[in-house]
C-alpha cells in the first residue's frame, strides 16, 4: 500500500513505468499467442495416441521440451536463436529493419504492433485508475484479453488456460469488493455463461449450425465476474456493434469473403474492455439521450 501511495504521488512516472512494463509483457504475449495453441495441439495428439494405443511421434513425447519458456525464441525460417539484444520490444524490430539478423527473412509487423498495443492499453488503465489495486488487477485482465483476441483471430479458439483463470480471479478479487460486490460477481459469471449458451442452442435448433464456441460463453462469464451482471447487456450490445463495424469494414476495405466465419471472442474482449473504462458514461449518455433521467 505504501508503494501505491508513493506511485500516486508521481503519476507521470507511474504511467510511464506501466507503459514500459506493457512493452515487455507485449513481447511475452507474442510467445503466448504463438505457443499456447501449439501446446494444446500437442496435448490433444498425445491424448488421442494414448486412447488409440498407438505410438506418439510428437516432439513432446520424444523428450523435446515445448512450453512458454522453452525452446528459446528463434527465427521460424532459419531457426537461429534470437539474442537478447535482438528481442527488445519495438526497438530491435526498428534496428533490424524488420528482418532476421541472420537470414534477413521479414519479421511480421504484428509483433511490434502487439507490443505497442499492450503498452498503450496498459498505460490507459494506469491513467484511468491511477496507482490503485484496481490498476494492478486490471492489467492482468487486459493482457489476458489481448492474448485471447489474437489467438481467436488466428485459430478461432479461446483457451481454457486463459479464460478460466480470468473468471476465477474476477470472483476472488470481488470477495474483497475490489470492483463490485461478490453476489453481483457470481451472478455476472452465471449470467454471462448462460446468456450466450442460450443463444448458441437457440441458433443451433433453428439453423442446425453452431454460431459460436463454448469459449465465448466462458469469456463473457469472466467479464461478468469482473464487472457484474449489470454490465452484461452493455457488453453484448457493444460486442454486436463492434462486430458489425469491423465486419463491414473488412468486407468493404479488405474485400473479405462474407461467408468466412468471424470469431466472436475479439468483439467480446473489445466490448468488455470499453465497458470497463467507459461503461458508466456510455450508459448515462444513452439514458440522457432517451430522456430516461430526471
Walk me through what this model shows:
There is one protein chain. This protein is 68% helix and 0% strand. The protein is globular. It starts with a helix and ends in a 5-residue tail after the last helix. The model has no long low-confidence stretch (mean pLDDT 87). Helix 2 (11-52) crosses helix 5 (133-155), helix 4 (110-129) packs antiparallel against helix 5 (133-155) and helix 8 packs across helix 10 (265-289). It has 294 residues and is mostly helical.
> What is the 3D shape?
globular
Task: State the helix count.
Answer: 10
Distance between the termini: 40 Å
Number of strands: 0
| Beta-strand proportion | under 5%
Q: Radius of gyration over alpha carbons?
A: 21 Å
Mean pLDDT level: 87
- Main sheet? none
Helix and strand arrangement:
Layout: H1 2-8, H2 11-52, H3 91-95, H4 110-129, H5 133-155, H6 160-174, H7 182-207, H8 214-227, H9 232-253, H10 265-289
Entry summary:
With 294 residues, this protein is mainly α. The chain has 10 helices and no strands.
What are the defining features of this structure?
294 residues; mainly alpha; 10 helices; 0% strand
